[in-house]
Design brief:
The protein has about 600 residues and is α/β, with parallel strands linked by helices. About 35% of the residues lie in helices and about 20% in strands. The protein contains 16 helices and 17 strands. The strands form five sheets. Strands 1-3-4-6-5 form a five-stranded mixed beta barrel. A five-stranded parallel β-sheet has the order 10-13-16-9-17. It has a two-stranded antiparallel sheet with strand order 7-8. A hairpin with a 4-residue loop joins strand 11 and strand 12. About 15% of the residues have low confidence. InterPro entries: MCM_complex-bd. Keywords: Nucleus.
Length: about 600
Amino acid sequence: MGGPAYDCLTNPLGAVRFSFANALSSGYDPASSVGKDWGVVDLFLPYFSDESALSQVPILDSSSIKWLQPNTLVRFRGMIQDMLGNEFYAGACKDGSTWRTNKFSDVSQFPEGSPTDMQVWERRLLYCVPVPGQNQWTECSSQELRNRFLDLTGQNREKRVRVDEEMTDSMESNTSEAGINGSPFKKMKVGEATPSTSESQVPQSSGLPPATNTDSLPCLVKMYDSPESELKLNDVVEFLGVLTFDPNVMMDTDSLDEISDDLSEAESVQMPSRKVPRLHCLIHRKLETQHFLHGSSLFTEPKSPQIFKEIRKSLMKYLTGLLGNDHIAAQFLLLHLLSKVHGRVDNVAVGKLSLNLIHLNKESMSIFGTQLSNALKNLLPFTQSIPLTIEYLNTASFGPKKDYGINRLMPGVLQIADGTHLILDETELQPGTLNSVGVENANLLKNLLECQKVEYDFQYYKMEMATDVQMLIFSEGKSNIMPADLVLPFQPSQVNSLEVITPETAEAWRCYLATCKSLSHSIGQELQQVVENDLVAARQTDRSLGSQDLSRLLTMARMMSVSYGETTLSLEHWQMVLELERLRKERLK
């Protein structure tokens, strides 16, 4: 990637301040700008259009935090679990006649003494977590990223020092560079009064935060220069920004000045930097499934229907083998895996296609259910499993709830990202009584399945949040808790040995599933009349068919078409759907 002479990767704050100095020389006025972007976004935006450059930026997680350096450029991929509102911070001040900025930083960059003309700006706080149920194949190797990063920093270290010295001279800074941290400004001493909002203005003890001892590392993302409506709760986002977590410092809030307390993050947030690293976001993008694929050629190159047919055939063979040669179950499973909510009419989520495989018991579930669950983990980016037992329903917290005591949204089992595949195992369900919690959880599950909405409890009121989750239910008989769109008796004929799948094949299947789900779809005028006539005939034959059943057939038709890479329904694919439906009903007799 072509770029500026300074090193954006290892010294992003230096690049920010260099661009700030250039903006000042071009007439940028910190006193009237309210912190508006002065060109930083354009400076870093090329990272998202150049995969080779983006691959050099380490991903912040529980492994990389052990070797990442503060004030370097990192990226965090996660789900927005809570939105903590806005905070004020000292964004700029005048040092004599020279303006300096503290944007994208928690540590005061202002020189000693009392700064004049301090400008208080505003930024948003997002509490982000690794995406619930994210599968291992979506993640980059932490060791590989570390090697890339260390190789690059080794090559650029001499160049970075030379350029940073030039930047420091040009900005008339009285401070020195802080080694590999890359900050061309000096940190404040313990006990110094500062108008910064930072929690990390004073030295902290060495050692990693407790959060790094688990596989899940949350991150407090500080947002600048983006509309509040651009991101919403549960969005999966990639943030690229400045890491300000420092494992060598410890909080000492007693030493902070009163003005700092007034402007800093509320103590009720209860997320000290030694536990939750901070990322000051420079740029961001919402993530789709294709962003997790390592060989996403299906997204970048047009493919012929023949390519789709070949991949479909191999995937169908694999799914059929997993399901004990039950070809019909494999067909319905594929349609289920390609379903997604593509519209809403009143309270109806158009495009959902939940599947209930019945005639499964504990024994068969331990074989086929386990194999299928493991296979889906290797094919889909996000998968979760919920055991539907009386004990679990009575004790688990399914719906997110707001705790105003600590001003936090406490996560629930059903606070998951769009595109998540959810397996619900009812084969372990024994006779028992649901308490009030169990009844509430059962209702939350039913509402998710029927309406694709999850109820959030904000104590004084409740709010439904729209979502898009694929739901697969295993049960002995038709589930009473989870009335699925499709109920299919499972009829395996044998237990097959597990097929060894090459990484290339698995990646092709992932690309296929993601690409098919992204395709648009329509029904031509000529075929539309045929479909309408068939639906009318079906309703006359079976008076129990309702509008939801007819809508389900149209959804199946859409999934059948896109499974072959087609964006327009053909008569052949419509007849295949009707035949599948006939076979399903025969099994239910």
